[in-house]
Amino acid sequence: MLWEALTLQLGYNATLVAIGATLLGVSAGVTGTFLFLRKRALVSDAISHATLPGVCLAFMVLVAFGGDGRNLIGLLAGSAMSAWIGLLCMNWLTRHTRLAEDAAIGAVLSVFFGFGIVLLTVIQTMGVGRQAGLEGFLLGSTAGMLWADALVIAIGGAATLVLVMIIRRPMTMVAFDPEFAAARGLPVHRIDLAMMGLVMAVTVVGLKIVGLILIVALLIIPPVTARFWTDRSDRVVLIAGLAGGLAGYLGAALSALAPNLPTGPIIVLVSFGFFALSLLLAPVRGVLAAVLRHLRFQRRVHIRQGLLALAQGQKIYEPLTIRLLRRAGAVRADGVATEAGKSRAAKALRDEKRWEIVRADQAHEATAALYNGLRDIETVLTQDQIAEIDRRIGGPQEVTP
Amino acid sequence: MSGEEFVPLSLTPLLIGTFAAIACALPGNFLVLRKQALIGDAISHVVLPGIVVAFLLTGAISTWPMMLGAAGAAVVAVVMIEAIRRLGQIEPGAAMGVVFTTMFAGGVLLLEQTDTSTVHLDVEHALYGNLESLIWLDATGWSSLLDVQALAGLPPELPRIALTLTGVILFTWLFWRPLKISTFDEGFARTIGIRTGALGLALVITAAIAAVAAFDAVGSIIVIAMFICPPSAARMMTNRLETQIVWSVIFATVSAVSGYVLAGYGPLWLGAADAVSAAGMIATISGLILALTAALGPCRARTGAPSHA
């Protein structure tokens, strides 16, 4: 059953939904990346909630002109219009009043959504039985997806992707350093608006599948996931697209398995699954990698301190240090140093003295900055330099009483 | 309208709406100033899974388990946001976005999996609330306000939200100075010995309690709107925090009352037969107030900013 779902053999509707969700996931992931890098991820929340009044108004207009209220293109056009107005309101509030961006986002989100709800209740009282589809835009409804709907989603998603590819360079520059971009003569404000416009396009396209509340997840989670794996923006875009597409595909396939598994939430949860995996397992920024890094560091500090203690003939009490030294073959079970341990300890003490000279010498200033108590001196100085330092330290001398 | 109709049908929803609006607007003032305005948004999304889990555990729609579930979910969300922000070194906005969308999706999924057809629990209800249904059937007129027997029939949401509002006012009043200082200058607040971390957390918890109590009565959309719109509008009117709080309370009250009245009677005046959603209308009115103050308010401009950026 699972295999059939993954290979798109669960019927026409399931196939349409899976293809649509995959395309949507890819374009949402790619577009959302720029928003995330610009540190404006929650703007998508305002944009998506601002689509609701547009959907309702479009429905009312369509019905008033005697058309079918559920015409997807009409509804999407309406939602795009009101989302754009919401976007302009938000921009105006942030630029021309003292409100910070988060307050502007929240104000637009709640007011537009509230107005949308008023319109929804108006539609309910219009008495036409045709409003059934509208609530679906809140959480997405894929049950009755038509070929034409899938086509709209596919074309919209593809067009968004192409546009992102065309203006990705200026968007990256604005995301990383808006002042520099402005100094280079880029119209920062217009590029920001274009970025928001693309997010709006993705939101509108995604209304049918995941609904306006959950589309935010597809715009935010894949880029955050991708950011764990790389530090290069072009790869973040690529990985976010992949993660989004995969989440869309898997989510749609899983939701086709049982009757009451709604597509939108499943896609979001799959996406969060990828995020959680990345948070734990990513090579450099992941939690596991950080824990391993910490443990390795801790081991190095303990061994170093243990060796220095051995060299100075001090007793070691710290159990972890003793265990590590024993495992390294530096001490025997009773805590007495082995031959290898003695020579390593002597080397450690000598290195410490060498560092002391280096750090006291102005000529070695750059090298001295690399001292952290753990670094082997051979990795930063040449043999000749070390020999010169050793000459300054001198050999063992008799102490006259 | 006579007392016989007004008291049973409109008085309690009006009071509940107003109390909820003020209870959210008060902490909202500080949240807006601290640039944490979207906490209300996050809380109102994560309340849904909390309520559904509470329903699954108790098997009934009863208030206290649900409030506990909602509060629990809010705490889980705050912890998750902090954990993701610190462990993953992700900016707070994105971390918030990851957490609240995921928890909301989980709530929707649980709701779809559960058989809730016998009870009144659905996503729409959570979003819009049901202010219009909080009527006081035992009242017969103004005299019922003095009638103990009739008072016992008050919708339970009213004493709850009144209690919450009292708590919020007490919190704001007791911690007024530390709150004010740490909101405007956190470093200075720390140097004079205010525990800013604990205070910030207390503010978020107060906001969460207000949000959950208001959510129970009026739905999440008013909660978000009231956290942000009245304080933002008040901010356009003045530079003093005390005055701002007064304005925000006025704006919250005006939105709640006029929103309810417009939703209930506006369509009738226009000749339509049915009322529209009061929650949505209250949010809309608060938005209109914000728009008005943003266009005309005496202190709307950012001081020191160029007049047209």
TrEMBL record, chain A:
Keyword flag Cell membrane: yes
SUPFAM superfamilies attached to this UniProt entry: ABC transporter involved in vitamin B12 uptake, BtuC
TM regions (residue ranges): 12-37, 49-66, 72-93, 105-126, 146-167, 236-258, 264-292
Keyword check for Transmembrane: yes
Membrane topology: Multi-pass membrane protein
Similarity comment text for this entry: Belongs to the ABC-3 integral membrane protein family.
Protein name: Manganese/zinc/iron transport system permease protein
Organism: Ruegeria halocynthiae
Automatic annotation (TrEMBL), chain B:
GO CC annotation, single: ATP-binding cassette (ABC) transporter complex
BP terms from Gene Ontology: response to zinc ion; transmembrane transport
SUPFAM superfamilies: ABC transporter involved in vitamin B12 uptake, BtuC
Record keywords, A-Z: Cell membrane, Membrane, Transmembrane, Transmembrane helix, Transport
Localisation: Cell membrane
Glycoprotein listed as a keyword: no
Tagged with keyword Thylakoid: no
Membrane topology: Multi-pass membrane protein
Annotated transmembrane regions: 6-26, 38-57, 63-81, 93-111, 158-176, 197-215, 221-238, 245-263, 275-296
Pfam families the record matches: ABC-3 (PF00950)
Gene3D superfamilies reported for this sequence: ABC transporter involved in vitamin B12 uptake, BtuC (1.10.3470.10)
Major localization listed first in the record, in broad terms: membrane
Family statement drawn from the similarity comment of this UniProt entry: Belongs to the ABC-3 integral membrane protein family.
Protein name, per record: Manganese/zinc/iron transport system permease protein
Annotated source species: Ruegeria halocynthiae
Lineage: Bacteria, Pseudomonadati, Pseudomonadota, Alphaproteobacteria, Rhodobacterales
